[in-house]
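Aim 2, interim progress: modelling of the iron/sulfur cluster-bound target.
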Amino acid sequence: MSVWIAPVFLPHAGCPHRCVFCDQGRIWGSPSIPSVEDVRDRLARFFETGARGFEASTRQIAFYGGSFTMLEPSLQESYLAVAAAYVRKGWVDSIRVSTRPEALGADQLSLLRRWGVATIEIGVQSLSDSVLEQTRRGHKAQDSIEAIKRAKKAGFEVGAQIMLGLPGDRGRESLLTAERLCSLRPDFVRLYPVVVFEGTELAFRLRSGQYRPLSLEDAVSLAAQVLDAIESYGIPVVRIGLLHAPGPGPSSEGVLAGPVHPAFGYLVRCRLYLERLARALSSGGPAKREVLRLRVHPRDRCLVYGHKGTNLAFLTEVSGARRIEVQNDETVPKGRAVHEWIRA
Ligand code: SF4
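Predicted structure of the complex, ligand included:
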């Protein structure tokens, strides 16, 4: 399913405080909260460009960057009324909002439902109370668990955002978070490694030696394990890592430290693909000087080769194959490969 989003950024709107890692102004490249009139103008300009997303199966206006359901209800309704006009015109199908887990009670859900919101993205971040405490999130894991259950029961599509490398997270907490989260069956997940933005509490902790971010290698390795766990439940991970450049999504502009890479998500998917292939091959016991043929979905071809060809080189070495042939096969599910050994 492809989703087309017309984004509206409301940096820190409704947030009761700043979480230690967060600077939405920098992430979204928009320092202040736009008024309802600003949103009306921006959406009008956005749609004037002819952008419609006809090719997508779902088209939405999304309010990102803050805690939407913690805004005054009248202000929520004013923003939603602007978006709902585009739903009535048939230019988008529905509305999406992002918010905090403790702000999704029955009244808040019913307000969203009344205005045509179909998707709620919940900032879960971690399901470890100790990590949440050290991150000063201001809510418990149980708040996220209940919010996801309530929103799903009320018929919303539910997305969950989780972060890797938060203070107090030694990797194990991220893996446990992924497992617990999957048991709640969110409809999709976003996965972000923590990066340190200038001006945040985390930047202060970094400078005073109280926080050390994940290295790029550790972040890729951990994200691949978390991705593997989530995908094993059939739950799609729709985004891995911040964007590297300004654009229609969270960006890594202004990062002081942390695992930033222009193709972080690609590195993670390459790593997971490699690990799955290596696992499958380890059961084969190939003879030297044979050719290993890999049939893969055409869209996975780049994952087999890996960043700068590293996956293919590694696979050639560990498999003992004389060479590896990669064949496109649309019948092979994405993320998987079928292998066979052929006499050279
Ligand atoms: S992480 Fe979410 S709740 Fe925390 S400050 Fe940022 S936008 Fe607000």
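The mean pLDDT is 90. Residues 282-343 form one domain.
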